[in-house]
Design brief:
Length: 124
Amino acid sequence: MVKILLVDDNQDFLDILKQGLSEHEVFLASNGLEGVETYKKVMPDVVVMDLKMPVMDGIRATKEILKINPSAIIVGGTAYTELQKDLFDAGAMFVLIKPFSIDSIEKIIEKYVLKKRPKTGYYK
């Protein structure tokens, strides 16, 4: 099971993502500041970060999370295609343009989280 932090000020969007990612442990935050605080508490494997939010935007929140964990996997999500470079510059590993699919998040999880985890079990 992968821990995913979803940070977005659109509650309907969060609910859809959470439902689509239900096989994982999903945490929600409605603004960047709440996202940073939640990150500190749960240390998720992946963060999906909106760009424009109240209290603290996604760019500042991304930078704050990377101060906590420089190897954090942060996926930016925005409808503002002209601002995607700002998310990359802040340190996002990927930027998905809204509306994006659950499958696009699953592919990132598969490639960058699950494939790096050691196999567990007994070997003969």
